[in-house]
Structures are given as structure tokens and as C-alpha cells.
């Protein structure tokens, strides 16, 4: 039997990518609708300055949503994201104005994120401890570390760097695309793609020769890196470091990932979904602000939307089973 | 004489928690031969596969590959030696595409990235072999079970194995898919692959294989050519151990009044079953694992949605709609997985035995410690549970745990007991005690439904045996018809005439 190439085999990568969009079309439509509503309410959005400002408010949430989603793909979850964001912010604010300058600061922030993430990963994976407990403990330690480095808001980010990232340029939007592209590259490596198998069916993956532990620990390291980079961006935005600025991001990152269709049990979901989820959350907050919702109503609406997003697939599945 | 074996296991032994699962097992796989491995549930087949693929380390014996002996074979050594296993339970990732699943763990690379072009080419090759026409980019989660099984087989072929182990590959395949698989295996045999084939379908084994190894209770009872053996002969090789005096003498109970009657009963896997259960009898449920035995018990117990054209429980019409309703009707259920479903391991023996009472108590009524202690001691006496009743249940042996799971229902004195494999993982002495207890219950006029994966138990303990197959009752054997041969034959769909010969 000769091996016949069927139509589409030569474009396997793109077709496989396309398949992953399928469950997300509804989400993309909702995101587009909210964006349109936002643009209608606030025509200023459709300008370089408007896009720049919006992207700057969105980027940190996009980064932490990715940081959370990658851990949820391994079957874990992180409660340390907010603390890690804070740590990234204070390290950036204390190192960038120092001897090694901006470049040294970026290296320090990245290295600490990778190291902290990898350490959490080694503890959770090697000792077979539940991720939720390990990262809860880590959130206290990391948060304490941030307060130790900078007990009260302070430090400084060089003005030109702040202007570059958070000035009147759409640099933040470019960064979102860059990070998404890097994730695509990672997912095209054997280790990256193995994450799905390691998350959904670790025993099966191990039997197939996947380095399950390595794939999961790498995911923790990448998650830490994304979190501290989010902190760096926030520090650049505000021009200084705040040791508790990240707190809200822990739960918001989970909310964004869940909105994006990332499953809690591992191996289910996509990064593009998580990014879209974070975009939806950002736009929603902005729209509700423009509609004059009081802050309390915003929180309640946010909660209702999240529970609705999770319950919807369950309800439709139940309807389909019982015609 | 014959071609050199690629892989040879010599005198393998393995125990789990002091329970020997394999004893001195030897097997040799030769290139260009399809070797069948047969045995009942729990005979040790899966353990043997796990030893051959390096997933488990043997306690004794060695594995020889191409003449080199390994005391401790690691999974990666086994893979490099060309051993590929198609496991019974699927190991696929539903969010990845067919091709990405097939290549998992062995992706072709280019500059550190997965080479999707090469992956598509190679995956298409093996998909052609197993007859998978689907687009390679289809997520595996979209495929029906049988197609997933074919992906699993393609995944094993992707590594170009010299030794292919298939653990019940046809259990979820359609007839057409099974045919494709047969052709494929015949082709691989011609190309010189050594194949180990595990199946519960005897006809398939007879058609496909040349050589057979039969395991019974962890020992090899036959290692021979299949020439001149018929299905009845194979069944005889798999059963027929000496029951010894493990079982109490069977005497019919005086009372044989029907207490449960269902007609057109459906629940879970089950479709349209008629069954009646009588007082004073032990009704056995036999068959291969997962043919609907548990669904039947849970459906009767109100723990699984069920429907029936007609149902009478203890003179009350209708199916119990919930567990507490079933309890009120006089049913009690002892689950197979006592650690997860039957007991609360970290609580004391006495606490576990009181649990059904707690469930019935009115909210916020006071507990009576003295009465509880008295009842617990009585129950422990009746079921000969030894030692301090304030110990945690997890400190007990499997057998004693099972007795606690049984004991907790005794105060209510339920006339109908549904038991799901009560002697699994229980030592011989306790097994005997449980058997005696069950016969005594029957003599007292209780109705007992006993689902068991242990065929001798069904033969020596039961008044009637319903053999389940694919969600139906394949045969309902009366006392004088019950034999291991008859049960195994009905479970595997071999024709009764052949067995009787």
C-alpha cells in the first residue's frame, strides 16, 4: 500500500491550529461585540492614542491570564500570580535606576520570575503536592519578599523606558502579539506540545515517552516569567514599584482563563482563548465604567458573567443529551 | 528449532502488597508469530504486560531482549528495544489532533521545533495501515471510541515496533475495524514483527494466533501451539482450579419467594432486562468486567437513573428513586471500591458502622454513646471483626474493611443485599468467613445479589447465576447448570455446544 497524501496533509500545522479555534468562535464573537460597543460608546478608542491607552490597561491582564492558563493546562492552578506580579514590579523599580540600568533590570526581573516559577514547580511536581497549596504558600512568601525589598511604594523607572512602553505608542499591543507569537513557537516544540498530554493524561503520556515532569516544571517557570514581566510593565506604567499592586491579578487571571475556555482538569483549552478571555474582561470593565455602573455593580456583573460563561457549555450539553 | 525469540521472560514474579499476582511466569515472543495471552479477570495479564514494557519492575526473574538480560527494564530501554504496547485504557489527549497524538513522545524535529511536514507524512503512513481515513488535523476528542482505538494502534506502529503488544484491542471496535486490524496483524506477522495478542474473544484468537500462553491465578497453565485446540479446550485451560474447602457446603434454603421483580429494566449500559430475585437465594452476576453488572446493582439501588416497564420491590410497585428510598424498601448496597465508596477510611470502625443510622436520625437529635458502643460491639461479634473498635478503618486489612462495610447495614436488617465484588483483594481466610456469612443470610431468608469477578465464587456459592454481556443477560444458569465452563463460555460468547463437548 503506497502512502497516499490526502488533501490537507501538507498543511497539517495550520489545519490543526484551525481546529483549535472551533470551540472559541462564540467567545470571539462576544469579544468583537463588546469591542464594537466600547468603540461606539467611546469613539476616542479608534485613534493611536486610544488604542495605546486601552492596550496598556489590557497587557498586564493578558500576561497573567497566560500565566494562569499554562498552569491550568498542566492540571494545576496558581494562587501566587498576584504576589509574583508585585515582586516583578518592585524588582524592576529597584534595579532599573541602579548600576546595571534598564537591561540589567529586565534580566533581574526575568531571572527571578523563571527561578521562582521553577522552584514552585519542582516542589509541586517532584513532591507530588497539590498545586493550590504550594502556590498559596508561595504567595505568602513571595508577597513577603516584595515587601522586604520595598516596604512602601517607591523606587523609580527611567522616564524614557516608561514612555517607550506606556507612552503614546501602541507598544503594549505589539508586546501582546510578540508574547502570543513566542507562545506559538513554544507550542511547536515537542516539550511545549507535550504539555497537553501531560496535563490530560499523565500516565498515558509517560508511557508514550513524554518527559511529563519536565514539561510541567517548564510550565511553572514560564508562568513565573510571565507574571514578573506583567509586574515590570505595571512598574513602567506607574513609574515606580508598589509591593502590593499585583493582589487583584490572582483571581482576575483565573477569571480570564476560565472565560477563555481553559479547563480546570488539565489539557483542555487554548492560549488564544485565555488571551481573548482577558480582552473580554478588560473591555467589560471599561464598558461598565463608561455606562456609569457603580463599582459594586461592576463586581457583581463580572461574577455573573464568569459563572454564566462556565455554566453555558454544561447547559447546552445537557439540552443536547435530552432532546 | 524455531526462530530466535526477540524477547524472553524467565521466571517472572510480582506481588502487590504481599499478594502474589505473578509466580514464575515465562514467555517467549518470536518474530513473525502472533502469540495469544489468555486468562480470566485478575489472572495477571496486565501485570505481565507492564513488566514486559518496563512500566513495573519484577520482584524476581529476568527479561531477555535479543539475548541480553535485564534485571530491571526501564520504559525507555523497552521503547528503544522496539517494544510498543497498545494499552486497554486509552492514553490519548483529546485536544490534540490525530497526528499530534500519533507522534507524541517521538516527534520528528527540525531546528528544535516539531517538523509538521515529516509528522504528517509518517502519521499518514501508519493511518493508512490501520485504515484511518480521517483528516490528520481532527482533534481526537471528536472521534468515536472505536476510531480512537485505531489511533492508539497507529501510535504504537509509528515507532516501527519489533514487538507489538495489544491488550484487548477489539473490545471497542466495530466488525469492519476488527477486520482491518486482523489484516494488519497478518501483514505485520509476515514482516517479522513479534505480536502478543490479548483478547477475551476466543473466536478471534482461534482465527488469528498460532501460539497461546494461558495464565491462571498468576501461573502459566499452558504454553503451547494452538494447533489441535478448540474453544472448549481453551476454556478448560483457563478455569478448573481446585476449590478446596474454601466454600461452605451448599444447601438450598427453604424460603424461595420472589421479593424483587423487574421487567424491561434499563439503567446505564443495561437495556431491557427481565430479572426476579428470590428470598433465600444468592443470585450471582458473572461475566467479564464492565458488562453492566455494576449498572444493574446501582440501578436497583436507586443510585443510577433507571427505568422499567414493571417493577416490584418487597411488595411495593415502582423503582426506588433514591438511595434513601431504596434503604426504606429494604435494600442495602456494598460497593466494590470500599476505600472510596464504601467506607470513611480515617474514621473509626464504630463510626463507620453507625453511619446508616446517622443518615436516618432526625436532624439535631442527640447521639447516645452507650447504645452506639453496645451496637458496635454486637456487630463486631456477629461479623468477627477483631480488636479495638475506635481504630481508624484504614488500619484494617482489606478483608476486615469489607466486613465493616457489610456490618454497617446489619442493624437495619435489610432483606435485600446488593454486593459488588465483596471479596476482591480479600485474603483467603476472610473470604471463607464472608462466604459462610452470606450462606447464613440466605438461610435466614434474605435475598442476596452477588456480583463477582471470581468465577469459582459464583459456582460454589450461588443458587442462580446471571451472566452479563454487553449490557444484557447472556445466560441465566440454574443451580444444576452452573459450572465455570458454562459461565466463562457465556461471558465470552463461545457457543455452549462446544463447551459441553
Structure report:
- The complex is a heterodimer of chains A (323) and B (501).
- Chain A is mainly alpha-helical.
- Chain A contains 14 helices and no strands.
- Chain A has helices at 12-21, 25-41, 48-73, 81-95, 101-126, 131-149, 159-166, 171-187, 190-200, 202-207, 212-238, 249-259, 271-290, 295-321.
- In chain A, α2 (25-41) runs parallel beside α13 (271-290), α3 (48-73) runs antiparallel to α11 and α12 crosses α13.
- The mean pLDDT of chain A is 89.
- Chain B is built from 18 helices and 23 strands.
- Chain B folds into three domains: 7-238, Rossmann fold (3-Layer(aba) Sandwich); 244-330 and 417-501, P-loop containing nucleotide triphosphate hydrolases (Rossmann fold); 343-413, no CATH class.
- In chain B, β11 (211-216) and β12 form a beta hairpin.
- In chain B, α4 crosses α5 (145-158).
- Chain B is an alpha/beta fold.
- Classes of the chains: A mainly alpha (323), B alpha/beta (501).
- At the A-B interface, α1, α9 and α10 of A face α2, α3, β8 and α4 of B.
Quick description:
The complex is a heterodimer of chains A (323) and B (501). Chain A has 323 residues and is mainly α.
Task: Give the arrangement of secondary structure elements.
The complex is a heterodimer of chains A (323) and B (501).
Chain A: H1 12-21, H2 25-41, H3 48-73, H4 81-95, H5 101-126, H6 131-149, H7 159-166, H8 171-187, H9 190-200, H10 202-207, H11 212-238, H12 249-259, H13 271-290, H14 295-321
Helix pairs in contact in A: 2-13, 3-8, 3-11, 3-12, 3-13, 4-5, 4-6, 4-11, 4-12, 5-6, 5-11, 7-11, 9-11, 12-13
Chain B: E1 7-16, E2 19-29, E3 33-38, H1 45-52, E4 60-65, E5 68-70, H2 75-80, E6 83-86, H3 98-103, E7 109-110, E8 113-114, H4 116-130, H5 145-158, E9 163-167, H6 175-190, E10 194-198, H7 202-208, E11 211-216, E12 219-225, H8 231-238, E13 258-267, E14 270-278, E15 282-286, H9 293-300, E16 306-307, E17 310-313, E18 316-317, H10 323-328, E19 331-334, H11 338-342, H12 349-360, H13 369-382, H14 398-407, E20 416-420, H15 428-443, E21 447-451, H16 455-461, E22 464-469, E23 472-478, H17 484-492, H18 496-500
Parallel strand pairs in B: 3-10, 3-11, 6-9, 9-10, 15-21, 15-22, 19-20, 20-21
Antiparallel strand pairs in B: 1-2, 1-4, 4-5, 7-8, 11-12, 13-14, 13-16, 13-17, 17-18, 22-23
Helix pairs in contact in B: 4-5, 12-13
Amino acid at each position: 500500500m503506497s502512502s497516499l497524501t490526502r488533501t490537507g496533509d501538507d498543511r497539517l500545522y495550520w489545519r490543526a491550529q484551525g481546529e483549535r479555534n472551533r470551540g472559541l468562535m462564540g467567545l470571539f464573537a462576544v469579544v468583537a461585540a463588546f469591542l464594537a460597543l466600547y468603540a461606539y460608546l467611546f469613539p476616542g478608542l479608534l485613534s493611536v492614542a486610544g488604542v495605546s491607552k486601552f492596550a496598556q490597561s489590557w497587557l498586564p491582564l493578558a500576561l497573567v491570564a497566560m500565566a494562569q492558563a499554562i498552569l491550568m493546562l498542566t492540571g494545576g492552578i496558581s494562587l501566587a500570580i498576584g504576589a509574583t506580579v508585585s515582586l516583578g514590579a518592585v524588582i524592576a523599580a529597584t534595579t532599573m535606576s541602579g548600576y546595571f540600568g534598564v537591561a540589567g533590570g529586565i534580566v533581574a526581573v526575568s531571572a527571578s520570575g523563571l527561578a521562582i516559577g521553577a522552584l514552585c514547580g519542582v516542589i509541586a511536581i517532584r513532591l507530588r503536592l497539590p498545586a493550590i497549596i504550594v502556590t498559596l504558600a508561595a504567595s505568602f512568601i513571595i508577597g513577603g519578599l516584595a515587601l522586604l525589598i520595598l516596604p512602601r511604594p517607591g523606587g523609580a523607572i527611567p522616564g524614557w523606558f516608561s514612555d517607550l512602553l506606556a507612552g503614546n505608542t501602541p507598544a503594549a499591543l505589539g508586546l501582546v502579539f510578540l508574547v502570543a507569537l513566542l507562545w506559538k513557537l513554544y507550542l511547536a516544540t515537542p516539550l511545549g506540545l507535550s504539555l497537553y498530554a501531560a496535563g490530560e493524561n499523565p500516565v498515558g503520556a509517560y508511557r508514550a515517552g513524554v518527559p511529563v515532569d519536565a514539561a510541567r516544571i517548564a510550565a511553572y517557570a514560564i508562568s513565573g516569567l510571565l507574571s514578573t514581566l506583567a509586574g515590570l510593565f505595571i512598574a513602567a506604567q506607574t513609574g515606580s514599584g508598589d509591593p502590593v499592586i499585583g493582589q487583584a491579578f490572582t483571581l482576575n487571571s483565573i477569571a480570564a482563563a476560565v472565560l477563555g475556555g481553559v479547563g480546570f482538569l488539565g489539557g483542555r483549552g487554548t492560549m488564544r482563548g485565555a488571551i481573548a478571555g482577558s480582552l473580554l474582561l478588560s473591555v467589560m470593565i471599561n464598558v461598565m465604567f463608561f455606562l456609569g455602573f457603580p463599582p459594586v455593580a461592576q463586581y457583581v456583573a463580572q461574577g455573573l458573567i464568569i459563572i454564566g460563561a462556565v455554566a453555558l457549555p454544561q447547559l447546552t450539553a445537557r439540552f443536547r443529551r435530552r432532546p | 528449532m524455531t526462530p530466535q525469540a526477540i524477547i524472553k521472560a524467565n521466571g517472572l514474579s510480582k506481588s502487590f502488597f504481599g499478594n502474589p499476582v505473578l509466580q514464575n511466569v515465562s514467555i517467549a515472543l518470536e518474530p513473525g508469530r502472533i502469540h495469544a495471552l489468555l486468562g480470566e479477570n485478575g489472572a495477571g495479564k496486565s501485570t505481565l504486560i507492564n513488566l514486559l514494557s518496563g512500566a513495573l519492575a519484577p520482584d524476581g526473574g529476568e527479561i531477555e531482549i535479543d539475548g541480553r538480560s535485564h534485571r530491571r527494564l526501564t520504559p525507555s530501554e523497552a521503547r528503544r528495544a522496539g517494544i510498543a504496547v497498545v494499552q486497554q485504557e486509552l492514553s490519548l489527549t483529546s485536544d490534540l489532533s490525530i497526528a499530534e497524538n500519533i507522534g507524541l513522545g517521538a516527534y520528528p524535529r527540525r531546528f528544535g521545533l516539531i517538523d509538521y511536514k515529516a509528522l504528517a507524512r509518517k502519521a499518514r503512513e501508519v493511518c493508512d495501515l490501520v485504515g484511518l481515513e480521517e483528516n490528520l488535523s481532527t482533534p481526537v476528542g471528536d472521534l468515536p471510541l472505536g476510531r480512537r482505538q485505531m489511533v492508539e494502534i497507529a501510535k504504537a506502529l509509528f515507532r516501527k515496533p519489533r514487538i507489538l503488544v495489544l491488550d484487548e484491542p477489539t473490545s471497542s471496535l466495530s466488525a469492519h475495524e476488527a477486520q482491518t486490524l486482523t489484516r494488519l496483524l497478518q501483514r505485520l506477522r509476515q514482516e517479522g514483527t513479534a505480536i502478543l495478542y490479548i483478547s477475551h474473544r476466543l473466536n478471534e484468537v482461534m482465527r488469528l494466533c498460532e501460539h497461546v500462553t494461558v495464565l491462571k491465578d498468576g501461573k502459566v497453565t499452558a504454553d503451547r501451539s494452538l494447533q489441535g485446540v478448540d474453544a472448549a479446550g481453551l476454556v478448560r485451560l483457563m478455569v478448573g482450579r481446585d476449590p478446596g474447602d474454601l466454600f461452605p457446603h451448599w444447601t438450598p434454603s427453604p424460603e424461595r419467594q420472589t421479593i424483587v421483580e423487574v421487567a424491561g429494566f434499563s439503567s446505564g449500559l443495561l437495556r431491557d432486562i427481565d430479572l426476579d430475585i428470590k428470598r433465600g437465594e444468592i443470585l450471582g452476576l458473572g461475566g467479564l468486567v464492565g458488562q453492566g453488572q455494576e449498572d444493574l446493582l446501582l440501578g436497583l439501588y436507586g443510585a443510577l437513573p433507571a427505568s422499567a416497564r414493571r417493577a416490584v420491590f418487597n411488595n411495593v410497585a415502582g423503582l426506588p428513586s433514591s438511595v434513601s428510598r431504596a434503604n426504606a424498601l429494604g435494600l442495602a448496597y456494598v460497593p466494590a471500591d470500599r476505600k472510596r465508596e464504601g467506607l470513611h477510611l480515617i474514621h473509626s470502625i464504630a463510626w463507620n458502622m453507625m453511619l446508616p443510622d446517622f443518615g436516618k436520625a432526625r436532624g439535631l437529635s442527640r447521639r447516645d454513646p452507650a447504645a452506639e458502643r453496645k451496637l458496635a460491639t454486637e456487630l463486631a461479634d456477629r461479623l468477627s471483626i477483631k480488636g479495638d473498635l475506635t481504630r481508624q478503618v484504614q488500619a484494617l486489612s482489606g478483608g476486615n474493611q469489607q466486613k465493616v462495610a457489610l456490618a454497617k447495614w446489619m442493624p437495619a436488617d435489610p432483606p435485600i443485599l446488593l454486593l459488588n465484588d465483596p471479596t476482591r483483594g480479600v485474603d483467603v481466610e476472610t473470604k471463607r468467613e464472608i462466604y459462610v456469612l452470606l450462606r447464613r443470610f440466605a438461610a435466614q431468608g434474605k435475598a442476596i445479589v452477588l456480583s463477582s469477578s471470581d468465577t469459582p465464587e459464583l459456582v460454589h456459592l450461588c443458587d442462580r447465576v446471571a451472566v452479563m454481556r454487553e449490557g444484557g443477560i447472556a445466560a441465566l444458569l440454574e443451580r444444576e447448570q452452573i459450572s465455570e465452563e458454562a459461565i466463562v463460555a457465556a461471558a465470552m460468547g463461545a457457543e455452549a455446544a462446544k463447551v459441553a463437548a
